[in-house]
């Protein structure tokens, strides 16, 4: 993580030639579900290339709704989302979905092919990669998460931690611009949790991690964004946010028992 | 279930039959059964020829005949009908060990029995030498409807997930004193089946989202680029050639 940037750069979207566009730029995003429930009220969020950001917030804060906007599964009610300079719009949907790699919370939802290797190949094959290039993608992705020897097994016969790492590989194989992880540490035993953290820290990727696991956010993400009631209520260095007990209490966030930050 | 996605009808191996592309085997099995069905039922010897042909394939594929015989018991329930025919069939009748049997009934029963058995044995041979996953790839290459292949592929993956969910729900029920042997407790089981359906449906929605997120556009991508050559087809269809010769012989001798 050599070229890691901590400060958000809100003007990056207009830069030309000099610097790459931000991996993710969300502007005034608002969304209401068809039943009238307003889930997002004008979200602004910019994530530069190479940044690792945690998205924190209580249940029902709109975290998942926001994530589903990033790759156009939910269409923006108002405002815009751009990924690596490309706006999320119907005509760009294919490229957007390649650029935004979402690792879903339950690996059993993510891993739907009969074998690990086929599942990892599913994404890149959909995006037009074939033959030797496809095999190379699968090899690289599985090697990155340390699952190469399980290539021909069924996801059913893997442990929870292994499934989670394969789910990560299925997304890495698409070579995304930004990696979005939904509760990556849920249902993992402490060892699997640490192993996943090691894999994630070893990746040279832009990352948005949705989580309730505050120590995990502290370990992996230098920057955090707190979402509550469909609004960004805090955005700053993770350590500072987690050391603010009032902020945490106001937004139903809580460090585990025995945990203090100063 | 062993490693990978083996099914109980599959016998792992590396014989030439195992290595044939699955679409060749599917077509060969189908045409083989067509030959059997088209053979006149009075051509008794020809059916023995079919059995010898299958036995030859088993030898090449290293499938023990006993292994095959045990699995062919799957046919047993269907045989019941065939057994009834000689007793209920039309005139003329013949006496055998004090039983009065109908001659057309006997022939009808023989027809069902021998063709059914050969069909089952052929299907079992296909299943014994082809993993489920390859069967689906074969269907895809034979241009079976994309929706069918997709559904079958997902079923292959999720059948055990759903079975696991059902098992956990059952454990949770009996841990709270549920005992479905009592008739009045059957309702809980029924509600369990209902909620299992809802859960599976919801999972289906989540899986669909995950598929969309990785660029799915309605068809399973072709993930294997191994080409099927003319040699494969010739090798795979040679038993069908023999079966065709047998069928023609059957027509000539009756």
C-alpha Rg of chain B (nearest Å): 24 Å
Q: Helix-strand pattern of chain B, N to C?
A: HHHHHEEHHHHH
Helices and strands of chain A, in order, run as EEEHEEHEHHHHEHEHEEHH
Q: What distance separates the N and C termini of chain B?
A: 47 Å
**Which CATH first-tier class of chain A would you pick?**
Alpha Beta
Sequence of strands across the biggest β-sheet of chain A: 6-7-8-3-9-10
Give the name of the CATH superfamily of chain A.
P-loop containing nucleotide triphosphate hydrolases
Helix content range of chain A:
25-40%
For the biggest sheet of chain A, the summary is: 6 strands, mixed
Could you tell me the strand content of chain B as a percent range? under 5%
Approximately what portion of the residues of chain A adopt beta-strand conformation? 15-25%
The overall average pLDDT of chain B, rounded, is 84
**For this entry, what is the oligomeric state of its chains?**
heterodimer
Determine the structural class of chain B based on helices, strands and strand pairing. mainly alpha
What would a concise description of this structure say?
The complex is a heterodimer of chains A (262) and B (254). With 262 residues, chain A is α/β, with parallel strands linked by helices.
Describe the protein in words.
Chain A has 262 residues and is an alpha/beta fold. Chain A has one domain (12-250): P-loop containing nucleotide triphosphate hydrolases (Rossmann fold, 3-Layer(aba) Sandwich), CATH 3.40.50. Chain A has 10 helices and 10 strands. The longest helix of chain A has 14 residues, at 131-144. The radius of gyration of chain A is 18 Å and the shape is globular. The model of chain A is unreliable at 1-15 (pLDDT under 50). Chain B is mainly alpha-helical. Chain B is flat. Chain B has 10 helices and 2 strands, in the order αααααββααααα. The longest helix of chain B has 30 residues, at 146-175. In chain B, helix 3 (44-61) packs parallel to helix 6 and helix 5 runs antiparallel to helix 6. Chain B has helices at residues 16-19, 22-38, 44-61, 65-71, 76-88, 103-129, 132-141, 146-175, 186-213, 230-253, and strands at 93-96, 99-102. The interface between A and B is medium-sized, with 38 and 29 residues.
């Amino acid at each position: 993580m050599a070229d890691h940037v901590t400060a958000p750069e809100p003007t990056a979207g207009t830069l030309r030639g000099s610097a790459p566009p931000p991996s993710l730029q969300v502007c005034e995003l608002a969304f209401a579900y068809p039943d009238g429930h307003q889930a997002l009220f004008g979200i602004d969020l910019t994530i530069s290339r190479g940044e690792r950001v945690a998205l924190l917030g209580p249940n029902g804060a709109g975290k998942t709704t926001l994530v589903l906007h990033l790759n156009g599964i939910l269409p923006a009610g108002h405002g815009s989302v751009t990924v690596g300079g490309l706006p999320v719009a119907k005509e760009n949907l294919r490229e957007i979905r390649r650029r935004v790699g979402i690792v879903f919370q339950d690996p059993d939802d993510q891993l739907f092919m009969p074998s690990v290797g086929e599942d990892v190949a599913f994404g890149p094959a959909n995006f037009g990669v074939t033959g030797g290039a496809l095999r190379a993608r699968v090899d690289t992705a599985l090697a990155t998460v340390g699952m190469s020897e399980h290539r021909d097994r069924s996801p059913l016969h893997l442990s929870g931690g292994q499934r989670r790492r394969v789910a990560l590989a299925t997304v890495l194989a698409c070579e995304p611009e930004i990696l979005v992880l939904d509760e990556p540490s849920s249902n993992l035993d402490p060892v699997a949790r640490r192993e996943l953290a090691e894999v994630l820290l070893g990746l040279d990727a832009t990352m948005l991690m949705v989580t309730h696991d505050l120590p995990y956010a502290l370990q992996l993400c230098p920057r955090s964004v707190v979402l509550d009631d469909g609004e960004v209520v805090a955005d700053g260095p993770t350590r500072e946010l987690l050391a603010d007990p009032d902020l945490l209490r106001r937004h139903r966030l809580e460090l585990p028992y025995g945990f203090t930050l100063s | 279930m062993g490693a990978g996605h083996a099914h109980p009808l599959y016998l792992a191996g590396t014989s030439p039959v195992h290595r044939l592309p699955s679409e060749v085997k599917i077509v060969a099995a189908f045409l083989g059964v067509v030959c059997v069905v088209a053979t006149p039922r009075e051509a008794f010897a020809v059916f023995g020829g079919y059995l010898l042909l299958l036995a030859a394939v088993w030898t090449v594929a290293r499938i023990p005949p006993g292994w095959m015989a045990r699995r062919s018991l799957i046919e047993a329930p269907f045989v019941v009908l065939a057994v009834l025919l000689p007793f209920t069939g039309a005139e003329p009748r013949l006496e055998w060990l004090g039983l009065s049997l109908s001659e057309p009934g006997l022939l009808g029963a023989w027809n069902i029995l021998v063709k059914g058995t050969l069909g089952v044995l052929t299907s079992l041979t296909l299943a014994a030498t082809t993993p489920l996953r390859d069967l689906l790839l074969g269907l895809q290459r034979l241009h079976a409807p994309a929706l069918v292949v997709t559904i079958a592929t997902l079923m292959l993956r999720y059948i055990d997930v759903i079975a696991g969910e059902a098992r956990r729900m059952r454990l949770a029920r009996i841990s709270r004193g549920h005992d479905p042997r009592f008739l009045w407790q059957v309702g809980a089981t029924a509600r369990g089946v209902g909620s299992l359906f809802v859960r599976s449906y919801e999972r289906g929605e989540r899986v669909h989202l995950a598929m969309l997120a990785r660029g799915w556009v309605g068809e399973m991508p072709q993930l294997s680029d191994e080409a099927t050559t003319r040699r494969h087809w010739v090798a795979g269809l040679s038993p069908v050639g023999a079966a065709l010769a047998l069928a023609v012989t059957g027509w000539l001798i009756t």
